[in-house]
Every structure is written in structure tokens, then in C-alpha cells.
Amino acid sequence: MTKKESVCMCGPRMERFLEPCLLILLHEKETYGYELIESLAELGFGDNPDPGMVYRNLRKLEKEKAVTSSWDTANSGPARRVYKLTPAGRQAIHQWSKHVQQKINRLQSFLKRYNQNFPEGSEGIV
Amino acid sequence: MTKKESVCMCGPRMERFLEPCLLILLHEKETYGYELIESLAELGFGDNPDPGMVYRNLRKLEKEKAVTSSWDTANSGPARRVYKLTPAGRQAIHQWSKHVQQKINRLQSFLKRYNQNFPEGSEGIV
DNA sequence: ACATCTATATGTTAAATACATATAAGGAGA
DNA sequence: TCTCCTTATATGTATTTAACATATAGATGT
């Protein structure tokens, strides 16, 4: 059996929301993991996204050539691995944005249905 | 180590979008798996959602007391397992709707950021 | 008898997430 | 110097979900 090939970098499952968030932050400026973790809160992640997830995602993005990395030892404190978006990563962002829009549509069609089922405070307040 | 208890039926991960869709369809009317599969397309699932997922989800919802089931042998064709929403299932829908709204917010804050990074056809058309 | 449709169900693999922990450099203060 | 805290990156592992394949079986039409 041949494995069904996926259409884009977003993969077959359209989850992994962390990935596009990292990409867009890296589009804004090249930076390193620890700072990305702090920036992620703005993009709707809780106070502290799992560092393990972030670092692993960054390495994966690098393996997929969406980013490149290099060590920054110029600053005080431990060395930082600084990531930089590649043109491929830039393209991936555009792909992701489409998928995110589709996902929003799906979620909204659920909410619409929900509001039809439970109109305006028909009971909703739990 | 004690396992961190999750806040609601939606669980820790906020995915499993199939689950709230099944619940809302069952709120509209009690019905059976095969028909639910057909109805799911309207709620943003592709042409044919994986039957395996649907049936397993239904059994899981039953185990969690969100639905009850009984056999319907009155109709022609193979027997149907008919599912009915419970009050607990009804409550779960409200929980889910909140989580879905939150998810939409997160996705939209990504899209907003995306549009700031790539304003109005700055290149976007891939 | 055979194929086909309806209907439910299970097995198996791959992937993502959550959570825990390891490692180490550098700075502040006793 | 020794300890503690912060910064910074990384790995280990268990659980969960999704994807895909396949099994089972009643009913119906030819």
C-alpha cells in the first residue's frame, strides 16, 4: 500500500498550531527558543507553553528547512540558538493561514448550529 | 505522582472536534451512527468522516454518560444502535461551545497577526 | 447463490500533546 | 567559594487522537 501523500507542510491533521505561531513570530524577527516561549502568550497560548514542545518544534522546522539556526554566544547568560525563517518557511506561513481560516470556518459552523439549538440565553449560563 | 485532573469533559487537549459535533446532532434528534456519519458533512467534516472514529466516539460518550443507547430493530435493514442525549451530554455541549469560541479566538489572533505581517496581497497569492 | 447496501465494530500504526526531568552557563549574594 | 536563582536548551515517556485498514453481519435485489 502506498501512503497517501499530504498536500502541504501543514500535514494531514491540521493541528500543531504551535508550528505556524513559531513561524509567524520568526517572520517578525529572528530570535531564540526562550524568547519565543514568552512571545507565544500573545498568540493565544496560556501563560507558559510547554518548553519541550517549543524546542522540539523548532528542531523539526529546521529539519524541514523552514528555519535555520545558529548559536549566539555574544550575549550574557547561556548560549542561545537563534532561528531564522527561510523562504520555504515563509511559504509555509501562507499555507497555514489558509488552513487556519478553514478551521475557523468549521468551528464557526459548529457555533452557528449551537446557537440555533440554544438561542440567546435559553439556558446556556451554566 | 497524581494525575492533573481536567477541568471539564472537553479534556485537557481541546481537540476531538468530532465529539461536540455528535452531541449537537444528537441534541437535534436522537439517531444512530450511520445517519450521524452522513450528517457530519454539514458540520464541516469532509465527505465521509471515518466511521471507526464515529462509532468509537459514540461508545465513549456512552461510557461517560453523555448519551444512552438502545437497539432499534423496527426498521428494515440491520439493527441500529440509537443514541439519545442525556442531561449531562447537554451540559457538555455548553462546555464545548465555550472551548470552541476560545479556539476561534486563538486562531483569529493568529490570522490577525498574519495579516499584519502580510498586508493585503503583499505577496500572499501562492 | 451472489453481490450490494446498510450498519456496527475492532485492530493497528503513527503522530501530537502533556508532563517530567536533565543539563549547563552565568550572575547575585552569603 | 559555595549555594541559589535565572536563563537556556534538550530529552524521556506515557497518554491520547487520528488515520487507515479490515472484520462482521443482516437485509435486499437479481
List the helices and strands and how they pair.
The structure is a homodimer.
Chain A: H1 18-28, E1 31-32, H2 33-39, H3 51-63, E2 67-72, E3 80-85, H4 87-117
Helix pairs in contact in A: 1-4, 2-3
Chain B binds a DNA duplex (30 and 30 nucleotides) through helix 3.
Characterization of the model:
The structure is a homodimer of 126-residue chains. Chain A is mainly alpha-helical. Chain A is 49% helix and 11% strand. Chain A contains four helices and three strands. In chain A, strands 1-3-2 form a three-stranded antiparallel beta sheet. In chain A, β2 and β3 form a beta hairpin. The longest helix of chain A has 31 residues. Chains A and B meet through α1 and α4 of A and α1 and α4 of B. The structure holds a DNA duplex (30 and 30 nucleotides).
- C-alpha Rg of chain A (nearest Å): 18 Å
Secondary-structure-based class of chain A equals mainly alpha
Give the overall shape of chain A.
Answer: elongated
How big a fraction of the residues of chain A is strand? Answer: 5-15%
Which tags fit this structure?
homodimer, 4 helices, disordered N terminus, mainly alpha, 126 residues, DNA-binding, 3-stranded antiparallel sheet
